Amino acid sequence: MSFEQDRNDDAAEFENWFEGVDLVPEMPSRGDLLDGVVAAITNSEVLVSIGAKSEGVIPGYELDKLDDATREGIVEGSTIRVYVVNPEDNSGNIALSILKAKEFEDWDYAENLSKTQEVFNGVVTGYNKGGLIVEVGQLRGFVPASQISADRRREVGQSPNNKWAGMQGDDIMVKVIEVDRSRNRLILSERAASKEIKAIKRRELFSVLTIGDVREGRIISLADFGVFVDIGGADGLVHLSELTWKHIDHPKEMFKVGQKVEVEILNIDHDKGRIALSMKRREADPWDTVVTRYKVGQLVRGQITRLTKFGAFARILGDEAIEGLVHVSEISAHKRIMHPKEMIGVGEQHTLRVIKIDPESRRLGLSIKEVDSPKYAEMDMEFFMSSMDDGGSDDAAAEDGGEA
């Protein structure tokens, strides 16, 4: 082997030995995201070793802008993520930023939220005339008014201050619907998260609800058989029979969509996800005091509400929660009738005599044929005289007309 060949072989071996070894540390580039080790901390800066020929510098004021937990974790020897602002500034330093690194990571996080459509739990930190501001890490996300949930918009006023100011500090669940780093644009939507929000609130509500609880709710729909009420995360049904002590044929006679009401929990079906509610149980039961308002022999004025083979039901005028029965045998004193329709009709008003009171069974017996009975003459006279002493009779029971 020649001398020349030996020299070439030695050179090749030397090159192979140094292959892959950085003799000079590589300089970082603007926009790099790197992991560094904190070398020193002073009042004005933080020095970070990033594997370059010199340490990078983070301005001290950035520490004041970090949350407490992050700031306390920055000590000598700790590893931190940094963003290269300038590989060589006017002073020849490698300018680094923790805040920019966090912002870079937050954009990655926002883009991932946009792809997965995962719900983000945030807080309303500000507002402008067009909607709400919600921070996603270091980023300021914007929820346009059109993307705010109907429930939240329903409770606001007209001016921007009245609309959104009261919502600052409120928790909010949103989805990311637009991300544009170049334009610093992050658009969020509460409406897009409505399905998940409702499911979460429903689970939370069902976990704490108990029979007998009293809740404030809002009527969301009316049906022939009752009303549906949103009680803060789940809808419950107030059946027609549980709306009011008064007799009504349809909820629209007393209620409207959007109306706030107080309800009591009657039943919870966890398997079917149903809640039975009552409104009337939040009111005084008129039958509890019926004996203080009526006595046997008293004349009242009533309106016929329905007819059956065995009699006619009449609602007491001025006390519509109380309904009594005029038995078929108490309709006429002059002839025997087989059905109330032979003498009276639904909607007619009649003067009636109270002949029975049974509050426990919630029954009031009424009579038409006893209205003119002489056995109540003395009572009627006493009633007439007392009404005159009160300045004249305004009682509907003293009015004439409409009797069978």
Model description:
This protein is α+β, with helices and mostly antiparallel strands. The protein has helices spanning 3-18, 61-64, 68-72, 98-116, 150-154, 160-164, 194-208, 290-293, 377-389, and strands at residues 33-41, 45-49, 56-59, 79-86, 94-97, 120-128, 131-136, 139-144, 171-180, 185-189, 214-223, 226-230, 235-239, 260-269, 274-278, 299-308, 311-316, 323-327, 349-358, 363-367. It folds into four domains: 33-100, Beta Barrel (OB fold (Dihydrolipoamide Acetyltransferase, E2P)); 117-196, Beta Barrel (OB fold (Dihydrolipoamide Acetyltransferase, E2P)); 209-282, Beta Barrel (OB fold (Dihydrolipoamide Acetyltransferase, E2P)), CATH 2.40.50; 286-398, Beta Barrel (OB fold (Dihydrolipoamide Acetyltransferase, E2P)), CATH 2.40.50. It is built from nine helices and 20 strands. The strands form four sheets. Strands 1-2-3-5-4 form a five-stranded mixed β-barrel. Strands 8-7-6-9-10 form a five-stranded antiparallel beta sheet. Strands 11-12-13-15-14 form a five-stranded mixed beta barrel.
Write the layout of secondary structure elements.
Blueprint: H1 3-18, E1 33-41, E2 45-49, E3 56-59, H2 61-64, H3 68-72, E4 79-86, E5 94-97, H4 98-116, E6 120-128, E7 131-136, E8 139-144, H5 150-154, H6 160-164, E9 171-180, E10 185-189, H7 194-208, E11 214-223, E12 226-230, E13 235-239, E14 260-269, E15 274-278, H8 290-293, E16 299-308, E17 311-316, E18 323-327, E19 349-358, E20 363-367, H9 377-389
Parallel strand pairs: 3-5, 13-15, 18-20
Antiparallel strand pairs: 1-2, 1-4, 2-3, 4-5, 6-7, 6-9, 7-8, 9-10, 11-12, 11-14, 12-13, 14-15, 16-17, 16-19, 17-18, 19-20
